[in-house]
């Protein structure tokens, strides 16, 4: 297993993995226009290329042999409103379903923490996660993340409640 920074050449695979994981986690009742619009606008190859090039972001990929199995995106300039001392947001954390419970996510999360050194020298990050995504919430709790509060994710006209979690040197 290799964890490294993403390159532009990874963007197509990142998009495919993002769509697969996002649909598995969030399209429990099927796919509608709101979901389709979201995944094609936010998880497309070009959008991921922009994120890879963004100096304020770190995109990490996990490959097993020659296959992408997970990735994460850190926004190094995203201060948490509920905990202003935390300046790094874990905006994306996707592990292909058949690779869960194999330590891949744990190793990727540890690397995210390592790369999230804040201006105050502490390694901490925050994230928003769907309250309905029980496997992901359980994973975050196992990583020692704590609840800070709640916010909402808007998908078209629908609002979905998120937990705000934080982890690392708090």
Give an account of the 3D structure.
The structure is a single chain. With 170 residues, the protein is α+β, with helices and mostly antiparallel strands. The chain has one domain (2-168): Aminopeptidase, CATH 3.40.630.30. The protein has helices at 11-26, 33-42, 45-53, 104-114, 134-142, and strands spanning 2-5, 57-64, 67-75, 89-95, 124-130, 146-155, 158-168. Residues 1-170 form the N-acetyltransferase domain. This is N-acetyltransferase domain-containing protein. GO terms for molecular function: acyltransferase activity, transferring groups other than amino-acyl groups.
Short description:
With 170 residues, the protein is of the alpha+beta class. Helices cover 32% and strands 33% of the residues.
Overall mean pLDDT score? 92
Order of strands in the sheet with most strands: 1-2-3-4
β-strand number? 7
CATH topology: Aminopeptidase
Distance between the termini: 29 Å
Radius of gyration: 15 Å
The assigned CATH architecture is: 3-Layer(aba) Sandwich
State the fourth-level CATH superfamily: Gcn5-related N-acetyltransferase (GNAT)
Low-confidence stretches: none
Q: What is the global morphology?
A: globular
Number of helices: 5
The figure for the number of domains is 1
Element-by-element helix/strand order: EHHHEEEHEHEE
Residues in helix, %: 25-40%
Percent range for β-strand residues: 25-35%
CATH top-level class: Alpha Beta
What can be said about the biggest beta sheet?
4 strands, antiparallel
| Class inferred from helices and paired strands | alpha+beta
Domain N-acetyltransferase: 1-170
GO molecular function: acyltransferase activity, transferring groups other than amino-acyl groups
Organism: Undibacterium terreum
Pfam families: Acetyltransf_1
């Amino acid at each position: 297993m290799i964890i490294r920074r993403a390159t532009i050449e990874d963007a197509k695979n990142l998009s495919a993995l993002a769509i697969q994981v996002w649909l598995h986690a969030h399209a429990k009742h099927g796919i509608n226009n709101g979901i389709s619009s979201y995944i094609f606008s936010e998880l497309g190859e070009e959008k991921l290329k922009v994120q890879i090039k963004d100096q304020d972001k770190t995109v990490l990929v996990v490959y097993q042999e020659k296959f992408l199995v997970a990735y994460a995106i850190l926004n190094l300039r995203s201060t948490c409103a509920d905990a202003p001392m935390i300046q790094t947001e874990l905006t994306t954390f996707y592990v292909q379903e058949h690779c869960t419970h194999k330590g891949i996510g744990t190793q990727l999360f540890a690397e995210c923490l390592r790369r999230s050194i804040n201006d105050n020298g502490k390694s901490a990050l925050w994230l928003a996660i769907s309250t309905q995504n029980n496997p992901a919430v359980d994973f975050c709790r196992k990583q020692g993340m704590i609840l800070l509060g709640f916010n909402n994710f808007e998908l078209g006209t629908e609002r979905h409640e998120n937990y705000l979690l934080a982890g690392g040197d708090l």
